[in-house]
């Protein structure tokens, strides 16, 4: 009789940072509230207003901010109202440091708009 063991598939995007199976986190997109979605849309709109020649697809920025918020809760209102330097710091830091398979941050990056700050 064939036995099937649990199979863990590690995303190729972060193949140099494999997670142990017990560290895998499932991003629960359904936990985003309507208020979160509206604020994230405004944040993304501000980002593209400040960076009109940005080539990163809008959906990538939206999903990265959403995933980060679900794993490391952000004060989205605070982020939206940040001065330009702090705003750019958080958005570029999230985009450059998020592990897209889990929503966690690499390189010890912590957004300034994290609720714990």
Can you put this structure into words, describing what you see?
The longest helix is centred in the middle third of the chain and has 17 residues, at 34-50. With 117 residues, the chain is mostly helical. It has one domain. Helix 1 packs across helix 2 (58-71). It is built from 4 helices and no strands.
Helix and strand arrangement:
Layout: H1 34-50, H2 58-71, H3 76-81, H4 84-97
Helix pairs in contact: 1-2
Order of SSEs:
HHHH
Question: How helix-rich are the residues, as a percent range?
Answer: 40-55%
Counting DSSP E segments of at least 2 residues, the number of strands comes to 0
Distance between the termini: 55 Å
Protein traits:
mainly alpha, 117 residues
Short description:
The chain is mainly alpha-helical. It has helices at residues 34-50, 58-71, 76-81, 84-97. It has one domain (31-117).
């Amino acid at each position: 009789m064939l036995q099937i063991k649990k199979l863990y598939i590690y995303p190729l995007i972060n193949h140099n940072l494999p997670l142990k199976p017990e560290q895998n986190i499932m991003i629960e997109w359904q936990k985003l509230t309507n208020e979160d979605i509206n604020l994230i849309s405004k944040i993304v709109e501000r980002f593209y207003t400040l960076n009109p020649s940005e080539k990163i697809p809008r959906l990538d920025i939206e999903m990265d901010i959403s995933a980060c918020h679900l794993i490391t809760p952000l004060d989205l209102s605070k982020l939206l109202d940040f001065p330009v330097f702090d705003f750019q710091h958080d958005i570029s830091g999230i985009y450059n440091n998020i592990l897209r398979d889990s929503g966690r941050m690499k390189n010890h990056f912590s957004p300034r708009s994290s609720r714990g700050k």
